[in-house]
Amino acid sequence: MALWEERWHPLREEWVIVAAHRQNRPWIGQTVGAARPAIPHYVADCYLCPGNARVSGARNERYERTFVFDNDHPCVGPDAPEPSEAPGIYESRDARGVARVVCYSPRHDLTLAQLEAAEVAHLAEVWAQQYRDLGGRDGIEHVLTFENKGEVTGVSNPHPHCQIYATNFVFKHIETEARVCAEHLERAGRPLFQEILESERADGRRILFENDRAIAFVPYFARYAYEVYVAPKATRASVAHLGTEEVADFAEALRHVTIKFDNLWRMPFPYVMALHQAPTDGGNHRGFHFHAEFHPPLRKPDLLKYLAGPEIGGGNFLSDTSPEEKAAELRALPDVHYTAGG
Fold this sequence. Notes:
Blueprint: E1 5-9, E2 14-18, E3 67-70, E4 97-103, H1 117-135, E5 142-149, E6 161-167, H2 172-188, H3 192-203, E7 207-210, E8 214-217, E9 228-232, H4 244-265, E10 271-276, E11 291-295, E12 298-300, E13 303-304, H5 309-314, E14 318-319, H6 323-331
Parallel strand pairs: 2-14
Antiparallel strand pairs: 1-2, 3-4, 4-6, 5-6, 5-10, 7-8, 8-9, 9-11, 10-11, 12-13
């Protein structure tokens, strides 16, 4: 493979620069500490553990599976006040919506990778219910479900959880994705993501897992070293549009990928995971293909992928690794979590 290559990211409409030889360049900058203390099953002062008081004073239920509540520090609100008038050419509007937290398990120490298959499937059903509930409300144009895992992603509480932002606008990446998917369907007569899946399966090198109804792969245009997409094989607008068997297969693929992640360096593997779901703005999104995207910030066990000149200054990603090599690394790992003897 060429050391200098550009790959087109069709869902974002941008070029990704692949310069895999840079992965082993000399590094004298900051590294991420490896010390990771043991995590107990329950923490008395954790805001997310069952029965505990949160920062707002509200007390959690003594939940036994998943637990959903309205975020105590939301970035949007249903009663957001009208903003002050913006000067000149600027514009402003109220940030309306609902922000929620979804605790995966009552166990403080169990990550997504350590949940049983049935528990991950139940979590996917909770995501679906939240999409239907929030997306069906007046003024909600998009439901963004995401998990920030690990201190290096800025997460403040290690209790396994994700967040949901249901907003009066469509987040930019989803807005672009919805537009390019609609344009491609109109132009080519088939969903763009189906063509991505066809290309990935024809190549085969970047596929990490596949069952009857779901697939996981490192995309050809990956920006991060261990970026992974998990998707149903059939084009569905959201997790709420999956059938029962599709939910089970999608959950199995999710669990498989997160186990591989943790097994890579035998540590809780940090990532940002986002569910890419069709906007709920009433538009025609027939070409939108629901999938989960994992964006891990580490390119080595102790080294972050820093967003610097090319990414922040120029607006295009520079990848220091080869998607094919990273996929091969993940494929070679055990399918059983290392804490369970994998």
